[in-house]
């Protein structure tokens, strides 16, 4: 199909498709459009964000089945073919002849590109090597000075994954401040957030709204846009002295203070009651995966706060109260909190 038709048809499943490059849209039209339509018939919507445990298991199953069909002897050879130059031609032919794209994405309602990136992250032997040494950090700076943002080349030189070296460089590229935020830093952060949100709204306005409605849209920025996912690496670059995760945490703090008008909603007995309500509600939901939680709904348990604030409080709750929480599934964590921690909190209240 032609490009305009592809954009129109994909827009039903990916609202922001017009901000994607034309070459990516052409690939999505070939790899994703038919799958998306099939999922729609089944009443399944296209998903974004963090992958669920069920989706991760499906990726593992798809990879294992493809390996058994083709005889390729490892997931690393399948997903990182360029690391094996002597076998590259054979592996590439097997992938093409056995419909690698279709097989990898089977049963997963997401864009193929995201599934492929997730699979590479899961099966990359270079992705689980622990903390960077001081020597590795110096090497990373040197390699970046020589090769710029060619993360593929740098990752090969350092035997680390592409994502790992890119994220680590983002963290160490400048003098990161770990102390209290200065007034100037806070102002830079707020200005950076405003810039990216206004840029996003202007793009949407240009595509879907007449100029007469733009002034009204500005009035809706605070509630509709401030809590949405923001491009934190871009905001990090604008702030200059803070790592992206620090920017995200600080923004959640600022937003919480604005929305609550400075009230202490999570102190003393209020905090105890909020924890109790949160555990009870999560237990009632009977969900198997944290990605299925509607945090927007749960935020009212604490008060008028951003969803990220509630997620942060739940994270702290499981880390401090659930032993070996990393080895437990989401449902096991909730059951532990409900059976062991809830009675203790109620008694304390």
Automatic annotation (TrEMBL):
<dbReference type="GO" id="GO:0003682">
    <property type="term" value="F:chromatin binding"/>
</dbReference>
<dbReference type="GO" id="GO:0006363">
    <property type="term" value="P:termination of RNA polymerase I transcription"/>
</dbReference>
<dbReference type="GO" id="GO:0005730">
    <property type="term" value="C:nucleolus"/>
</dbReference>
<feature type="domain" description="HTH myb-type">
    <location>
        <begin position="129"/>
        <end position="161"/>
    </location>
</feature>
<dbReference type="InterPro" id="IPR017930">
    <property type="entry name" value="Myb_dom"/>
</dbReference>
<dbReference type="InterPro" id="IPR009057">
    <property type="entry name" value="Homeodomain-like_sf"/>
</dbReference>
<dbReference type="Pfam" id="PF13921">
    <property type="entry name" value="Myb_DNA-bind_6"/>
</dbReference>
<dbReference type="InterPro" id="IPR001005">
    <property type="entry name" value="SANT/Myb"/>
</dbReference>
<feature type="domain" description="Myb-like">
    <location>
        <begin position="173"/>
        <end position="255"/>
    </location>
</feature>
<feature type="domain" description="Myb-like">
    <location>
        <begin position="124"/>
        <end position="172"/>
    </location>
</feature>
<protein>
    <submittedName>
        <fullName>Transcription termination factor 1</fullName>
    </submittedName>
</protein>
<dbReference type="InterPro" id="IPR053078">
    <property type="entry name" value="TTF1-like"/>
</dbReference>
């Amino acid at each position: 199909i032609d490009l305009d038709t592809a954009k129109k048809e994909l827009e039903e499943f990916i609202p922001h498709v017009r901000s994607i490059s034309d070459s990516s849209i052409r690939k999505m039209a070939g790899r994703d459009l038919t799958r998306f339509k099939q999922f729609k018939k089944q009443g399944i919507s296209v998903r974004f964000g963090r992958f669920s445990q069920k989706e991760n298991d499906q990726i593992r199953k798809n990879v294992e089945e493809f390996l058994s069909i083709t005889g390729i002897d490892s997931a690393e050879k399948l997903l990182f073919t360029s690391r094996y130059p002597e076998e590259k031609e054979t592996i590439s032919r097997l992938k093409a002849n056995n419909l690698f794209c279709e097989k990898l994405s089977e049963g997963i309602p997401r864009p193929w590109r995201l599934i492929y990136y997730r699979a590479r992250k899961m099966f990359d032997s270079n992705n689980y090597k622990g903390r960077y040494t001081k020597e590795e950090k110096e090497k990373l700076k040197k390699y970046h000075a020589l090769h710029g943002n060619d993360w593929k080349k740098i990752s090969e030189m350092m035997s680390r994954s592409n994502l790992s070296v890119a994220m680590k460089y983002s963290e160490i590229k400048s003098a990161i401040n770990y102390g209290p935020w200065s007034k100037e830093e806070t102002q830079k952060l707020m200005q950076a957030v405003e810039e990216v949100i206004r840029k996003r709204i202007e793009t949407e306005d240009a595509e879907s709204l007449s100029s007469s409605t733009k002034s009204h849209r500005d009035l809706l920025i605070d509630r509709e846009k401030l809590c949405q996912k923001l491009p934190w690496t871009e905001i990090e670059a604008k702030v200059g002295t803070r790592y992206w995760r620090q920017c995200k945490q600080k923004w959640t703090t600022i937003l919480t203070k604005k929305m609550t008008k400075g009230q202490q909603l999570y102190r003393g007995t209020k905090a105890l009651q909020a924890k109790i309500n949160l555990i009870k509600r999560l237990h009632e939901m009977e969900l198997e995966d944290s990605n299925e939680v509607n945090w927007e709904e749960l935020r009212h348990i604490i008060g008028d706060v951003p969803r990220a604030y509630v997620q942060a409080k739940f994270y702290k709750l499981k880390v401090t109260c659930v032993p070996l929480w990393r080895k437990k599934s989401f449902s096991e964590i909730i059951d532990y909190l409900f059976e062991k921690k809830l009675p203790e909190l109620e008694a304390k209240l």
